[in-house]
Design goal:
Elements: H1 5-32, H2 35-42, H3 46-52, H4 56-72, H5 85-100, H6 103-118, H7 120-146, H8 155-170, H9 172-177, H10 184-202
Protein name: TetR/AcrR family transcriptional regulator
Keywords: DNA-binding, Repressor, Transcription, Transcription regulation
Pfam families: TetR_C_7, TetR_N
Amino acid sequence: MSAATAPRLTDRKREAIVQAALAEFREHGFAGTSMDRVAAAAEVSKRTVYNHFPSKEDLFAEILLQLWQRSKALRPQLYRADEPLRDQLLDILGEKLKLMTDASFMDLVRVAVAEMLHTPERAQAMVARLGEKEAGLAHWIAAAQADGRLRPVDAPYAAQQLQGMLKAFAFWPQLAMGQPPLGKAQQRQVLADSVDMFLRFYEPMPGPR
């Protein structure tokens, strides 16, 4: 095997292990998943699994890291004073909605949430890091407030309200109740309605003429 081929094969095996572990963690939970089962599902030797991940904890940490990286990949939410607020919010939340309707992302979320319920300390740090990503919308709202285009209220509270409207239809039903992802038309409706309701409440009332 050439030196150029070896890394690619190693990467493929590592990815196969991660995907197999994701399926095992989803079906059996952290406690019920073994490295033997992961190796069999990935069609690699147990030694190969341990070469990549010294322990089951390391393997689970890799899954959480991928969850973090998918969230981190969202574009920066920069406020633009020369563009309509509605267009900017549709763009920002549209990116979040794409992530929420990504099947592999939701698989990772289910694993993390399930383990957080059983062993909170194991997933607590990663969940806190994921929460940092949610702060981007609050910063955008604060910038719009400073520009006088939104009412001066607590920006993190307002951001949580807006994201909560989106998640109520596009995240929690799929995560907790196994509902299918929203179709394209439903996504557009939920996205537009959430943004419009938010702006109707938080945009300043026009002054008297």
